[in-house]
Each structure stands twice: as C-alpha cells, then as structure tokens.
User: Fold this.
Amino acid sequence: MKPAPFEYCRPETLDEAVGLLAEFGDEALVMAGGLSLGALLNMRMVRPEAVIDINSLSVLDAIEMVGDEVRTGALARQADALASPICGVALPLLIAGLGHVGHYQTRSRGTLCGSVAHADPSAETALCLATLGGDVELTSTRGVRRMPVGEFILGALATAREGDEMVTALYWPGAIPGMRVAFEEISERHGDFAIVAAAAWAAPLESGWRYGFGLGGVEDKPLALRGDIVPVVESTEQAVGEVFDAIALNLSPMSDQRASADYRRHLAEHLGKQVLQSVFEGVAT
Amino acid sequence: MKRVKPGERVRVSCKVNGKAQSGFTESRTLLADFLRHELHLYGTHVGCEHSVCGACTVVLDGRLARSCSMLAVQVEGAEITTVEGLAADERLDSLRDAFSRHGALQCGFCTPGILASVSHFLSASQNPSEEAVRDMLSGHICRCTGYEGMIRAVMEFASGRREGASE
Assistant:
C-alpha cells in the first residue's frame, strides 16, 4: 500500500497553484489535509501524474464573515472551524456536524473544502453546507465562479469541478435570529463514515418557520430541502411529517457492505424525524 | 515553487525531536516510512496506512498528523515530535507510570501514536472530561486493552498534574 510515482508540486501562491492545474488538468490532484487523498494514493485508487500540495498557501486558511455569510478558505481545517468564534456564533449546525467528522487526530489537518471537493456521499461537512444552502467557490486561470453545493456535487466522488479548477472556498449562510439546529448520525463507530446522517435547522418567521433539512449517506450525494412552513396550531408533528415526506417519498437509498437500502431507509426516517422534531420544538417554544 | 519529478530523489531537512535531521526521499515516500527507514526512528508504527488506526500519529508543527497519509517531501523545514521525543520528556514520566499501572497497553503496537495524541491533547486541555478523553482515544485502534485502562491512566495523570500545580 504505497502510492504509485507522481510529480510533487508545492506552489507558493494561488496563481502558481491554478497554473499547475491548467498545465496538468485532470491528471493532477490537489492535496490539502491529505486524510482522504493520502488513503486513495496509498491504495492506488488514484494514480495522478501530479499531486499539488497547497499547504504553503497560508492565505487560504481564513475563516471570515463576508456580509451575512461565513467564508472558509481551502486550508481552513476542521479543528480551526471548531475553535473559531465566528463559526461558534454563525454556524452552529457545522459545529454540531463536525463533532462526527473523523477524530481529534484527523480534524487537526482535515479541511472543510477538501471534504466537500472529495464528495463522499456520507460526509458531514457537505451535508451541513447543503442543508444551509451554501456555495462552493472554484478558481482557475480563467477566473473565479461560485455555485450552490447542490449543483457542485454530482454523485459519489463526482463533482462539477473542471479539471483546471480548484475549490478555494465555501460560503456558508450565517445563523438567523432564533435559529435552532440538530445533527444526528449512525455509524459503525463514532467518527467513522456515517451510514446515515441527518441535519436540520429552523428559525421563527413572523408567521411560521423557516427550515432546512438534509440527509447524508442515503443516496450518492447529500439530499437537502429548504423552505417556509406555517404549522397548524404550532403542531410540530404535522410539520415534521410534511417536511420529511417531501424528501422521503422519492428516496432511493444505496445498498452496500455496511447497510442495506431498507436499513438506510429506516435510519433516514428515524434520524430525519428526530432532528426535525428537535428544531421545530425549539422554535415553537 | 518546489517540484519533485516522479522517481527523483531529493533531500528533505527537518527537525525531529528537537534535533536537525535530513535524509533522501522520493515524492511518493510516506512520512512514516521516511521516519522509520531513512531516519531510523522505528518508534513510529505503521498500521492501516489509510488514516484510520492511528498507530503512525505524530505531532507536526504543533498539530497531530497521521504520518501514513503525509508525504515525506511535505515536511521540509517542519518540526516533528515522535514517541522517541516524548520518551525524553520528564513531564510525561508519571503518564508512563500510569499507563504501566493501569494496564493501558499490552502488545504496545498502538502506544506510540496514542502517546503522541495524549501529549498533544493534554497540552491543549488542562482539565479534560472523561468524555473528551474517550473521544480523543477513539481516534486510535487498540485490540488488546479495551481502552478502559488508558482512560483511567489519562484521567489520573491529568488530575495528578492539577494537584501538582496547586501545591
């Protein structure tokens, strides 16, 4: 289990990094924390011509408020987000989800952008971003573009990133007043890949509630739904059923060595309704 | 910008356990293999080679790193602490003693990585809860002990350190 030969490149500037991507295109892979890419290289599931190590681009580690959004750069580590006062105030859902991401040891190097760019169907970071309705920033020598994470992730380990582009930031909508969040998951061992993860948030409006609801690990990419709902006499149960059914009616869960489709469907309902119940009860009281 | 061609051997210089070290490596050489086979620091163990088991954990520039998922060429100029460096740290004597008394290790294969994690964790958390200790140790796979001895040893060391500080 050792990587096949490749060219190692360590750019010192973003211009150099995207220049390398323009040179190698699909034949290069970007390494940030390396927790996912390192494993893929070791198992030779990927054999790139070049590995572009962006760890010298320290300008990319920023976590900052930009208007109402939080912008996390390509080198913002999971541990940095957990320790960040900005994330603590503005991104309670991400903080709740990150507790399930890997372990103390892997969060110290693993990055938020790397996880989203890797697009594992069970990844918590992408699920939180999708549930909040956030965007992915892509940079190439041709320019910078932003797209919703729901359009960026196409399926398991597949994204809309062009070969010459690099994920340079995530944009997270900041918390709104009165917002409640909940995150639950089932995995074989705490910190392992989720078999099913569920995320939800809700906030009171003048009339009714605004909500977001997402499921990870069920299909080949995160499923998310956002909207407004006016509950009948503040009945959380009716709202939970309505929102859950809107996602679940067309659910086609994956089946693999860890869990059958039926078990995933069962967990999706159990955890999905649990997180929705939690946030709707929170805003109803 | 540094570029290392496939198959090219380059010199990498870094500081390991406070001592300047240097050795030759290819672009694809893992940090764990560089530490063991080039620098002859065999204390860092290699288990799963995909970031899961934790045996290869080291402290790199103040952060924990799985040395099986990093490349040796990445550590140019870096400061690394391995279990050999922790062995020279007298402040950890009572931790080693607690590991021994509580049966926190048996075969010892996972222990170097666990000691790296524990030393980093206790430098960041002065007064950890048992839950936080369990969460931290969950990043390591130990097939001998069942973890309970490790948890007792870490908790005892942390509370002893508190008492020592208040004396």
The beta strands of chain B are 2-4, 10-16, 19-25, 57-60, 63-66, 79-81. Chain B is about 40% helix and 15% strand.
